[in-house]
């Protein structure tokens, strides 16, 4: 067995942070090597150095025992390295074949012989069992298929080293399983695969070797045979991870929000939410699972008044709204943890204390006769900083200076301290490290225990399964079904995420 | 009255004039569409056309050769294109603001230059222009023959440019790179397409063609320069691109429609139909607004007008 790729003492420094420090890594030919680490551990940055998007500050890269310089993406391709990015690098308006040959240097011809390319793509698709139609447009393909186009693109360029970055993040459990088969197939065809991931189950399922990164440094490299999930988790986080949440008893439930036939159409005229109806009760967490882009954002924006809806009604505090403004939503006891915290949740250039009163500046304790009551605003912020353990230099610190986890805590503190009846949280742990993730999830459960109605919209299935009392699965703007916590079945949820209705399954759905 | 009007509209002469009126729109749109599809909004077409019109006139006036006029027009408008490209692509400035600056600058500089060189009261200074070329045989086709093939060189250039642009976009590697740069530059860049370079050349190319479109205003027929001779035609060409859903064929159809509108309005004026002359003059502009309201810009490239830098580290 030979080493096809070796990284020696790679350091990558950005103006403000050191993303990778003295990283050593070696990939054996024909193996799957997992690069495991939390969000922000430096996995993607490291691989971006290998595929030419970044250049390392110091250190060396060897391919087949030859030292190489990789200054740009085309050089990486020339060395047989291909990366499938987490966010697909596909042009939606172009066809599969066009995307495959985009940017290819090999083709000297001025004119593109698209028929030839389509034939080659079809052949490769056949060989690796991708089932792709070369003429299809990317925008018409489901996410799982798009990912195969990405992989095919890399194979078409004759890559021998294939890097998959968080490949299952956007897939349903079934699609993930299909992807695993594809990876196994790649290895059979003598390709070597680097798997960037933070999911332990994926590592145990696919990898031969595992290298764990934490804070940009290698914690260790182990072979899968000699390790287990618990050990890997400990290496990854630096302590035992339990995800053991304290959960109060169920309270008596009362209806807090009723949504009837909600329909949302986006600016491009596409229906994102279709005739959606559900009820939200006090003292429960209703989790909305689903693959990203199935209407999650639109649903949360409609419920919080951030976008207009085009049909249906929302009943809040005994009033039924055909249209609802953010003000009506907020002042009727709805709190919102938005998906994009830096864009919609916070004013980055303003101080922590001002961000804390964004929704409630008008209340008597913070202002009178149109003037802000500075003293009580500062005191309010200081209290919240303490109770939510927000690390910032002072209440006057600019939000931009805070870490992602602390920014999210600012939002949590603001939204929860209002004492909401309803809390709508969208992707509340996206991009946070494990410690912050645990904290946020526990806070959601605590709110539930206090009697708040919590709607948790998340694409992390694990998150939903850990905290939710009921789970709804969103697919193309509709709920495929709502399941109770007590009768959960990942397989069933996976099918629903792919668009199979619960009713259809009960009606004798036969699994293929 | 209706009969007179219909008689005017359905005639070979009308068809011929519509095509010739449409030509500046077609040319400017065929250039502009390359820039738009590469992702750079080029509203500066107007100023580039106007500059092209003056420099074509000057080139032709001083050398006595209208072909030299076309070359000077291209050079002058390319200079503006370079400014637009540099500021939008290298500096990442707001593409609308840059274009507005270019348009205002062009309006000012062409008027000032023209007045300085030819005097305010010069009256009608003319320069040598291109005459119509009749294409043997083709010209003999009944009705359409003289309308299509008794035109000046710019019209023929437009005939060639439309299919060429189509082939460029959909059959060549360059076209694929241009489309990808306008839709999803990050992906294109990752795949090794030099997005900035593609966009830069696209803008320069569009400005060169806009210069030729400008020349077609001044030295093909009237052979004069008049202050603000382009009179918003660059903007209309821009609208044609949007109406044509960023497809060369569609944009040409839109341009023909505008050419016809302009033909109709001139005929109404010439026929002495008793309406205030300002009314028909408004036709093309009203049509632009109405059509844009109807069509909108839903079909625009996804990264249209969004600056892109390939070395944007975190």
The CATH superfamily of the largest domain in chain A is known as P-loop containing nucleotide triphosphate hydrolases
Q: N-to-C terminal Cα separation of chain A, in Å?
A: 38 Å
Average per-residue pLDDT of chain A, rounded, comes to 89
For the record, the count of structural domains of chain B works out to 1
| Low-pLDDT regions of chain B | none
Helix/strand-derived category of chain B reads mainly alpha
Question: How many strands, which pairing sense, and closed or not: the largest β-sheet of chain A?
Answer: 6 strands, mixed
Structural overview:
The complex is a heterodimer of chains A (512) and B (314). Chain A is 33% helix and 26% strand. Chain A has 512 residues and is α/β, with parallel strands linked by helices. A 6-stranded mixed β-sheet of chain A has the order 6-7-8-3-9-10, sandwiched between helices. Chain A has a 6-stranded mixed β-sheet with strand order 16-19-20-13-21-22, sandwiched between helices. Chain A has a 4-stranded antiparallel β-sheet with strand order 2-1-4-5, covered by helices on one side. Chain A is globular. In chain A, 45% of the residues are buried. With 314 residues, chain B is an all-alpha fold. Chain B has one domain (2-120, 128-313): ABC transporter involved in vitamin B12 uptake, BtuC (Orthogonal Bundle), CATH 1.10.3470. Chain B contains 13 helices and no strands. Chain B is globular, with a radius of gyration of 20 Å. The model of chain B has no long low-confidence stretch (mean pLDDT 89). The A-B interface holds A 14, 53-54, 72-74, 77, 85, 88-94, 98, 101-105, 107, 109-112, 114, 153, 268-269 and B 171-174, 176-177, 179-180, 183-184, 186-193, 298, 301-302, 313-314.
């Amino acid at each position: 067995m030979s080493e096809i790729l070796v990284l020696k003492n790679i350091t990558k420094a950005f103006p403000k942070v050191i993303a990778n420090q003295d990283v050593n890594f070696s990939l054996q030919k024909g193996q799957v090597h997992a690069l495991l680490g939390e969000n922000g551990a430096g996995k993607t940055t490291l691989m971006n150095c290998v595929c030419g998007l970044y250049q390392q500050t110091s250190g060396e890269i060897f391919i087949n025992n030859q030292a190489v310089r990789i200054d740009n993406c085309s050089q990486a391709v020339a060395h047989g390295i291909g990366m499938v990015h987490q966010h697909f690098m596909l042009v939606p308006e172009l066809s599969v074949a066009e995307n495959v040959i985009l940017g290819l240097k090999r083709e000297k011809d001025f004119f593109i012989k698209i028929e030839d390319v389509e034939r080659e793509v079809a052949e490769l698709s056949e060989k690796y069992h991708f089932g792709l139609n070369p003429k299809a447009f990317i925008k018409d393909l489901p996410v799982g298929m798009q990912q195969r186009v990405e992989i095919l693109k890399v194979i078409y360029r004759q890559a021998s080293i294939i890097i998959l970055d968080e490949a299952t993040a956007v897939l349903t459990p079934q699609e993930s399983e299909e992807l695993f088969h594809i990876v196994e197939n790649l290895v059979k065809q003598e390709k070597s695969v680097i798997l960037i991931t933070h999911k332990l189950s994926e590592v145990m399922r696919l990898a031969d070797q595992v290298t764990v990164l934490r804070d940009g440094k290698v914690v260790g490299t182990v072979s899968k045979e000699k390790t287990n999930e618990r050990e890997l988790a400990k290496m990854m986080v630096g302590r035992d991870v339990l995800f053991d949440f304290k959960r109060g008893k169920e309270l008596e439930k009362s209806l807090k929000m009723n949504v009837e036939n909600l329909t949302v159409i986006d600016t491009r005229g596409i229906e994102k939410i279709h005739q959606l109806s559900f009820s939200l009760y006090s003292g429960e967490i209703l989790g909305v699972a689903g693959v990203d882009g199935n209407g999650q954002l639109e649903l949360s924006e409609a419920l919080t008044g951030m976008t207009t809806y085009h049909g249906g009604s929302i009943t809040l505090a005994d009033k039924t709204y055909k249209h609802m403004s953010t003000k009506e939503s907020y002042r009727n006891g709805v709190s919102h943890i938005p998906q994009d915290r830096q864009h919609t949740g916070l004013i980055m250039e303003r101080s922590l204390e001002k961000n804390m009163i964004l929704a409630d500046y008008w209340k008597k304790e913070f202002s009178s006769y149109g003037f802000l009551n500075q003293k009580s605003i500062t005191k309010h912020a200081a209290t919240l900083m303490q109770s939510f353990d927000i690390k910032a230099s002072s209440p006057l610190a600019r939000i931009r200076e805070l870490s992602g986890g602390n920014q999210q805590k600012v939002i949590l503190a603001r939204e929860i301290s209002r004492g909401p009846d309803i809390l709508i949280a969208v992707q509340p742990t996206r991009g946070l490290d494990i410690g912050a993730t645990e904290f946020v999830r526990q806070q959601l459960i605590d709110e539930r225990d206090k009697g708040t109605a919590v709607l948790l919209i998340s694409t992390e299935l694990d998150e939903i399964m850990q905290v939710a009392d009921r789970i709804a699965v969103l697919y193309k703007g509709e709920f495929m079904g709502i399941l109770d916590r007590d009768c959960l079945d990942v397989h069933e949820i996976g099918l629903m995420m792919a668009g199979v209705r619960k009713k259809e399954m009960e009606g004798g759905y036969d699994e293929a | 009255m209706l009969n007179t009007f219909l008689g005017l509209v359905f005639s070979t002469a009308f068809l011929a004039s519509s095509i010739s009126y449409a030509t500046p729109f077609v040319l400017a749109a065929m250039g502009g569409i390359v820039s738009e599809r590469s992702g750079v909004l080029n509203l500066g077409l107007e100023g580039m056309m106007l500059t092209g019109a003056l420099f074509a006139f000057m080139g032709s006036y001083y050398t006595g050769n209208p072909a030299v006029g076309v070359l000077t027009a291209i050079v002058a408008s390319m200079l503006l294109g370079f400014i637009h490209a540099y500021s939008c692509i290298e500096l990442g400035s707001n593409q609308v603001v840059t274009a507005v600056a270019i348009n205002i600058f062009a309006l000012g500089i062409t008027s000032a230059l023209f007045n300085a060189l030819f005097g305010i009261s010069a009256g009608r200074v003319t320069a040598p222009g291109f005459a119509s070329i009749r294409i043997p045989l083709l010209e003999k086709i009944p009705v359409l023959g003289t309308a299509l093939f008794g035109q000046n060189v710019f019209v023929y250039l437009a005939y060639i440019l439309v299919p060429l642009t189509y082939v460029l976009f959909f059959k060549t590697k360059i076209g694929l790179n241009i489309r990808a740069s306008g839709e999803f530059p990050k992906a294109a860049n990752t795949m090794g397409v030099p997005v900035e370079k593609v966009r830069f050349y696209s803008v320069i190319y569009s400005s060169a063609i806009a210069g030729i479109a400008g020349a077609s205003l001044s030295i093909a027929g009237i052979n004069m320069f008049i202050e603000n001779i382009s009179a918003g035609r660059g903007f209309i060409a821009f609208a044609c691109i949007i109406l044509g859903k960023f497809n060369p064929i569609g944009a040409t159809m839109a341009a023909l429609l505008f050419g016809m509108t302009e033909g109709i309005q001139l005929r109404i004026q010439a026929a002495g139909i008793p309406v205030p002359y300002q009314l028909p003059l408004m036709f093309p502009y009203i049509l632009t607004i109405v059509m844009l309201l109807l069509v909108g810009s839903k079909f625009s490239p996804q990264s249209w007008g969004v600056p892109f830098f390939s070395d944007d580290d975190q």
